[in-house]
TrEMBL record:
Origin: domain of life: Eukaryota
Role description: Binds together with bS18 to 16S ribosomal RNA.
Gene, per the UniProt record: rps6
Primary location group: plastid
Signal peptide (from-to): none
Location within or outside the cell: Plastid, Chloroplast
Native species: Gracilaria vermiculophylla
GO biological process, one term: translation
Protein name stated in the entry: Small ribosomal subunit protein bS6c
PANTHER family: MITOCHONDRIAL 28S RIBOSOMAL PROTEIN S6 (PTHR21011), SMALL RIBOSOMAL SUBUNIT PROTEIN BS6M (PTHR21011:SF1)
Length: 103
């Protein structure tokens, strides 16, 4: 199976504790592994001021996950994020960098 490179960034509510944040990270890492993803890299970007309010929040905690996976995994991961009360926004992009090209 051909795996693509993806980057998912999600924004947590500003009142989330560090342990709740780590629980979510571990949950999503397990989900990615369960559905065949690998090369998982999690980066905690920290608390940032939002350019505009989202669901009446002006700050959020940013977390970035880079991984290799099939496209079906992205749908599963985003559904889990959509159902989470702690996440106010998420976005997944496919990495089309030069090392992904078959030249």
């Amino acid at each position: 199976m051909n795996l693509n490179k993806y980057e998912t960034i999600y924004i947590l509510k500003p009142n989330i504790t560090e342990s709740e944040n780590l629980n979510l990270v571990n949950k999503y890492k397990s989900l990615i592994k369960k559905y065949g993803g690998d090369n998982i890299l999690v980066q905690h970007k920290g608390r940032r001021h939002l350019n505009y309010n989202i669901k009446s929040y002006y700050d959020g905690i940013y977390v970035q996950i880079n991984y290799h996976a099939g496209s079906n995994l992205v749908k599963i991961l985003e559904k889990a994020m959509r159902l989470s009360d702690s996440i106010i926004r998420y976005l997944t992009i496919k990495d089309n960098s030069i090392d992904n090209l078959n030249i």
